[in-house]
Design goal:
- The strands form 3 sheets. Strands 5-1-6-13-7 form a 5-stranded mixed beta sheet.
- Helices cover 40% and strands 25% of the residues.
- By secondary structure, it is α/β, with parallel strands linked by helices.
- It has 2 domains: 164 residues, Periplasmic binding protein-like II (D-Maltodextrin-Binding Protein, domain 2, 3-Layer(aba) Sandwich), CATH 3.40.190.10; 89 residues, 3-Layer(aba) Sandwich (D-Maltodextrin-Binding Protein, domain 2).
- The radius of gyration is 19 Å and the shape is globular.
Length: 268
């Protein structure tokens, strides 16, 4: 019964996808001819996308990509690409779409088309428990004595520069490196998407990590699609709408946000 919503949405969408296959644009035509959908992801943002201890790429984004590939009857290939390079890889044709917890910002939207959103989140703050006792509000970090860790190229970096201009900025290569800076005491806090903050505070209880209780920004996550293929854009947008309407997204969110079995698969 848990997969019923996903199956219904998949069947409904396959009917739409097959009907439009003959009119495929350049990227969609490439996907259908190769029989393969190449999806770019950073694999550093659990529970959306991450590399498990055994090397498997997992997460809500990967499940989403898997269902999408099945919907158009092609194989799925995952390409792991550093987050700051994802949209350039998409525009260069190295991947067909990018699904990596990407916030749909105007600057990014000027480069690519975004289908969705498929998830709404916001920025959060992660810090050691003792720091949480000192901080009453996020703006309390807006002093040169504090160092804030962010992942390069993320909205966390953008937001920190805007909200905390006086704080020192530690720009790490990815989410894990930014988190490690907080764990090692090189930064007093990390600014990143709220779900990541909550998960990290749960995973690293022994390190006394804590997150602010709610996000302080509004951020819609979308699937990035090349700007030169309107039919692919329409297909992905309709796919997300059908999955949402059929209850498939509810099941995916339940699996990755209400069930904890997958956490054991994370690298220790």
């Amino acid at each position: 019964m848990r997969k019923r919503g996903i199956v219904i949405a998949l069947v409904a969408f396959m009917t739409l996808a097959l009907a439009s296959a003959a009119l495929a644009g350049p990227v969609l035509d490439r996907i259908l001819k190769k029989g393969e959908l190449v999806v770019g992801t950073a694999a550093d943002y659990p529970p959306f996308n991450f590399k498990a201890a055994d090397g498997t790429i997992m997460g809500l984004d990967i499940d989403l990509a898997t269902i999408m590939a099945k919907a158009i009857n092609v194989k799925l290939k995952i390409e792991v690409i550093p987050f700051p390079k994802l949209l350039d890889a998409l525009n260069a044709g190295k991947v067909d779409v990018a699904i990596s917890g990407i916030t749909m910002t105007p600057v990014r939207n000027a480069k690519v088309f975004f289908a969705g959103p498929y998830f709404i989140t916001g920025q959060g703050a992660l810090m050691k428990g003792e720091m949480m006792q000192k901080i009453r509000d996020l703006t309390d970090f807006n002093h040169s004595e504090y160092t804030i860790a962010v992942a390069k190229g993320t909205t966390g970096e953008i937001t920190t520069k805007q909200v905390l201009p006086k704080a020192k900025l530690l720009v790490a290569k990815d989410m894990d490196a930014a988190l490690q800076a907080v764990l090692d005491g090189k930064a007093q806090a990390m600014i990143t998407d709220f779900p990541f903050c909550v998960l990290a505070s749960f995973r690293y209880k022994a390190d006394n990590l804590a997150a602010l209780q709610k996000p302080f920004t509004f951020e819609p996550l979308g699937v990035a699609v090349p700007a030169n293929d309107p039919l692919l854009q329409n297909m992905v947008d309709n796919f997300l709408g059908t999955l949402e309407g059929g209850g498939g997204m509810v099941e995916l969110k339940k699996r990755w946000f209400k069930q904890s079995g997958w956490i054991k698969k994370l690298p220790q």
